[in-house]
Amino acid sequence: MAILETKGLEKRFGGIVAAHDVSIAIEQGARHALIGPNGAGKTTVINLLTGVLKPTAGTIMLDGRDITALDPHQRVRLGMARTFQINQLFLDLTPLETIGLAVSERLGLGGDWWRLVGSKHEVTEEIVEIAERFRLADVMHVRTATLPYGKQRLLEIALAFACRPRVLLLDEPAAGVPEAERHELLATIAALPAEVTVLLIEHDMDLVFSFADRISVLVNGSLFVDGAPEDVARDPRVRAVYLGEEADA
Amino acid sequence: MAAAGLVRPLDGAVTVMGALADDVSTYLKRRARWSPLEIAFWVFAFATIWLFPGKHLILTETAILALFALSLDLILGYAGIISLGQAAFFGFAGYFAGLVAKYGFIDEPVIALVVSGVAAAALGFLTSFLVLRGSDLTRLMVTLGVSLMLGELANRYSDITGGADGLQGVTIAPILGRFHFDMFGHTGYTYALIVLFVCFVIARRIVYSPFGLSLRAVKGNSLRASAIGIPIKWRLVAIYTASAFFAGIAGALLTQTTAFCSLDVLSLDRSADLLLVLIIGGTGYLYGGLIGAVIYKFLQDWVATLTPQYWQFWIGLVLVVIVLIGRQRFEGWIAGVRGAFAQLGTRQVTRPAALGSAAPDGH
Known about the structure:
The complex is a heterodimer.
Chain A: E1 2-13, E2 16-27, E3 31-35, H1 42-50, E4 57-62, E5 65-66, H2 72-77, E6 80-82, H3 95-106, H4 121-133, H5 149-161, E7 167-171, H6 179-190, E8 197-201, H7 205-211, E9 214-219, E10 222-227, H8 229-234, H9 236-248
Parallel strand pairs in A: 3-8, 3-9, 6-7, 7-8
Antiparallel strand pairs in A: 1-2, 1-4, 4-5, 9-10
Chain B: H1 16-30, H2 36-51, H3 56-79, H4 87-102, H5 109-131, H6 136-156, H7 158-161, H8 186-207, H9 210-220, H10 222-227, H11 232-258, H12 268-281, H13 287-306, H14 311-325, H15 327-344
Helix pairs in contact in B: 2-8, 3-8, 3-11, 3-12, 3-13, 4-5, 4-6, 4-11, 5-11, 8-11, 9-11, 12-13, 13-14, 14-15
């Protein structure tokens, strides 16, 4: 059964069509990749899915529920979280505080204005668990702005994971990560729990084909091909518009 | 490995994970601890009751200005909402406190003070929806507009407010039925200082709570804040309402300690002065408004004795100098003060060297 599904999703900015008739179904527990050339509308689709943008037409269903009209934070509460292509972190906070924010919010304690931060045991325990899973335990008290880029990338994912999503949207998680820090990042992504559905947006074909069990190709805002990795790799149209240079090299 | 430093000696029953969680908890809570410098600040503040008995009237004004500036710091320093209309809440509660005292609706000043604050908070809640959207400039305009409208309403309905003559005939009953206000302002100052302290403690509680942390997240990166489930709109409504409450308490305090209320409580000057106070004192560490108010009032008092007519010239000069010294140097100075406040409470802890940059409010 599809946990996340869009029907006829459309987004126009004035005369520009950024997404056209995108109907995509992401199965429960899938490792689904969304690929496409630069400017194909991948990030627009993510922004539509997460509610940063409201679609011009079409619907988005999360676990059978229509979430098209919901605000971003409401979608998070229903179990969908994302990372950003360009780090969107709280630079003045520490990873500890950052993860704590997401955990508190999910447990419904984020509006608590009287108790001190850190006074709830279930919050601190979960912070520790997430910090260890994402290899951040040794930098928990360091101001985020001063973290190495690879660690910031990990925090980016950890923060989305801290929302305990059923669907996790990763927007180019490996973008810009130096070779030396890359392995740690990829290992962490590979180790995400199987029950979490992952939609990966990525440029890096090695990562896409090693990770995904299903691939959708987006070209000029429209869904072009949707299928298993081997079928997508073999599809002549995909080779022509997208994989061309790499496949023929 | 630095993480080893996180693990405290185990006592059998506690798992490593549990110990880590305890450690995280202690670390998070430690930032909210009162530092010796803060304690010294408040001890000195209360000592002024006995140290400067002849200065109680101006000290009362200073305490009220400090509380008022604290209210602006809550939205400006913690939520990034700039306002030129904080006087709306100050003045509204000022008149509210004056009217309830004049007509004897509420005789006891402390209850009247809280009720006036709540009235200002209600006004803050209603107008908060106007400042949710938009840039800093639209927020300046909207907040200014609201206070201008209130000012003219107070002017128009002079049968209620006394108009340009001010609200006459206000008599404030003794506090708790025991402490009478006196003409030297001794009772008034002690009262104002206690109210300032209580409000400060509440504000401090708020900024160190999960709610306060989420405000810093919203200010730091609202896109990400909503992406981790923070309902930005309601957080901003809440802090704006709380800020209006504190501004209202300050306004009511002015009415109660002077037994008078006039149109200037709603004036643009009052809102603008407040920004000056925060520019002098710095934002985002709670003491900015307090320190700024002391410096501002001291300057005003000192310069006014030198040149009674042209004192604002010197205030203006100080402002220009502050800006000319350079934003960076100025911010460095603020960071130094902030760092001192923040770190005094945490210095006992042994931590990796990186901790220095993780001072709670280090911006």
